[in-house]
Amino acid sequence: MKYVLLVEPPHGSAPLEAFRFPRPDESLLAPPWDLLCLEAYLHEHTRHTTRSADCRLGRNIEESLKSAALGDEPPDLAAINMPLDSIGEAVAVMETLRRIAPRLPLAVWGEFPSAHPDLAGRLPCDYALAGDPEPILRALLDNLDLPSRLKQVRGLIMISHPRSTSAWLSNLHGLSTPDWRHVAWASYQPRWPAGPTRASIRISRGQIAVADNHPFGGRPQPLRKWPLKKIAAVVQLCSSRHVLEAFLDDPPEVWTDDTLMSWCETLISIRNAQPWALRLPFRRTHPAAVRALFSSRCRRVEFILPAVASENLALFNCEPPAAMRAVISEMKQAGIITDLTFWVGGPWRRGSEGKNILRIINDLMPHNAVILPYPMLPPSPLPDTVQSQGTPTITEYLDWALDPWTKQRPLLVWGGSAAVEDIRRTMEYVRHRLKRKPRFLLAGFVGLLKPVLLTSPAPLIQRQRH
Fold first, then answer.
1. Which of 8, 180, 392, 435 is the most buried (most CB within 10 A)?
2. Are 289 and 369 contained in the same domain?
3. Alpha-carbon dihedral of residues 205, 206, 208, 211, nearest 10 degrees?
């Protein structure tokens, strides 16, 4: 039996702050879904014990990691998640653990080693898990003292024996979903007494390389879906944990008409009581979708679309705003909040993006609008014919992560640092004009009456045992 420390790194810094109208940024930090799934799998399928450290919560990360790695019972292994947008932060966690616990073996898992197993040998760690982490980490812990057997584990990269392939499960049926009872929900609550929290949940892993999935990164793994009844039960259990919203954080193309209707019907069949939200592609849905969304307790839908001219929306599998007018109107009448998220500065743009955004907002009148730089998580499934000069490569990003003192941090936006000023001007153009709207002024006044939401200084480390 081994004891493993599971670490979620701090968030990567955004290249530009998002602009939200009229609602200010009320986003709440959610427990890390992938880490909790991995932890639940080890609890249900092995005798290994775990401790989790969410570095997004604490201000003094080094002290928190030191208490976890040098406690009364030091771990046998530390496994650090490495999302594509937090590569530098994950490397910083590895270097901190190396400094405070030089003999502690380190393993990385998540998007980066899975998408780029050929680059894992450059990381300051001992192992990299390329693929679905649950079976690989289990095999690593089972054979941690038997190096000869580790060479036979599919998807396990030993830094001294590099590999270039990832190991994916054919389906997700044998994996585990989080046990909300073991989550320190108080760590994710604002300071309001019994304040609300938000849960981040997914019905899938992987994605398909289509236009409106470009900014979510390549993630070269097959698209697989969890059994819907299993995820519906996870959503339902949120209602007993003071969860304000269960947000389904899947790429938009996961939600085909059949998947969306099946998901809603599953929630209706269990009489779901938990409000939830999801991210949809900007196109019309099944005729009965709005009624099914409302009946299953969906209370917010986020549509994503690039700020390009209407004739170019088809390049992103999006429909013209005029085609979406009836859908959004029907959602608003049903009491479903509609948010429009605009990506600024991406490919195929033409003309004034700011004017395009204002035109769509005035036409559709969503409840909220969010403007973000067009993100660029390498490797993107964009075809080579539309690759943008100046967009950072994954190698450049890793070079900075390994040497942040002498190299400038690449900006993960379309066009790189050269495009940032144009994006900022577009965002300021929209902000200036929307601030003149009475609706915006009223929302800003109401926002002044709200207390400042700060994350609770609850313990960063949570210990889990059988």
1. 8
2. yes
3. 100
SS3 state at 343: strand
Asked if residues 333 and 313 have their Cβ atoms less than 8 Å apart, the reply is no
- Is 159 in contact with 121 (CB distance < 8 Å)? yes
SS3 303: strand
113 lies in the same domain as 205: no
The model's pLDDT over 85-121, given as tens digits with 9 standing for 90+, comes to 899 999 999 999 999 999 999 999 999 999 889 999 9
Instruction: Pull the structure tokens for residue 94.
Output: 């590895």
Q: With b meaning 16 or more CB within 10 Å and e meaning fewer, what string describes 301-322?
A: bbbbbbbbbeebbeebebbbbe
How many angstroms separate the CA atoms of 453 and 183, rounded? 20
Structure token digits, residue 213 = 């999935």
In a domain, 404, yes or no: yes
Range(s) of the domain holding residue 49: 3-11+30-171+460-464
| Tokens of residue 24, six digits | 């200010």
Domain match, 339 and 245 both: yes
Residue 149 vs residues 6, 56, 156: alpha-carbon distances, Å: 23, 35, 11
Count Cβ atoms below 10 Å from residue 425 Cβ, excluding itself: 13
Tell me phi and psi for residue 114, to 5 degrees. -75, -40
Q: Is residue 412 part of a domain?
A: yes
Q: Which CATH number goes with the domain that contains 86?
A: 3.40.50.280
Residues 130 and 194 placed together within one structural domain of the fold: no
Enter the tokens of residue 348.
Answer: 């195929």
Based on the domain organization, do 196 and 285 belong to the same domain?
yes
> For residues 456 and 187, is the Cβ–Cβ distance under 8 A?
yes
Do 331 and 235 share a structural domain?
A: yes
The count of structural domains within the chain is 2
Please provide the DSSP assignment of 215-259 as one string. GG----S--EE--HHHHHHHHHHHGGGTEEEEEE---GGG--HHH
Intervals of the chain under pLDDT 70: 23-27, 190-196, 208-220, 348-351, 376-389, 437-466
Is the separation of the CB atoms in 155 and 130 below 8 Å? yes
> What pLDDT shows up at residue 464?
45
309-352 tens-digit pLDDT: 777 788 778 889 999 999 999 999 999 999 999 988 877 666 68
| Domain shared by 193 and 142, yes or no | no
